Amino acid sequence: MLRTATRRLGQAALLPAARQKSTSHRVQGVLFDFDGTLTHTDHIHFDVWVELTNRLGYPQPLTEQFFQENISGRHNDEVLREMFPLLDEPTVKSCGMQKEEMFRKAAKHRLQPLPGLMKFIQWLEQQNIPKVMVTNAPKENVQFMEKVLQIEKHFPHKVLADDCKRPKPHPEPYLKGLEVLGIEASAALAFEDSRAGTASATAAKIPTVGVLTTLSEKQMKACGATHTIKDYTELGRLQALIRGDC
Description:
Number of strands: 6
Structural class: alpha/beta
Strand order of the largest sheet: 3-2-1-4-5-6
Radius of gyration: 18 Å
Strand content: 5-15%
């Protein structure tokens, strides 16, 4: 069962790292986005948004470029308010829930961990480096995807959309993630794939690795990513980043 942000924050002292300024460049905690960062989901979300916006009568076809620039990584409610300003708030909430139900149905047999992810996670755990998931995804999606990917035990600490008043691209989610880990931004490393997520992490002053499932290296660097990776098979490079060797 997922715990509330308050409960997670209350348990921050139990994590290995203490809140203090880093005395070295070694990373003391890692923050992971979920969609597009742990598993490739943007193509599924795009298909679902196309279907939903068609149903709602959006006046023009939804393109992948529009999706990447205006939807990917953002909270459903914010997107729906912008695209359909005449919708009342109960309808916005209802459509957002409907979109996620459509996603879970479409994604059930299409999700796989990104290549190399499990080896990297296991290495972090062997090094006693704590990690936290920071995502705009609703609780139901997180539970569903964790179960499909079989990663529940690896992410006991989470900051979810419902835990924040202001979702990504606001820095609040990642600031809460730092509180969970009990470390300063300079001692952390974030992994993100979207413009909104990278904006959130970098606004929280966290060095950020861009995972190139969604955007190009040039686009991720323009968003503020300090490094980029194709996936987690670059284990040696990732280990060097964690150790502060590069």
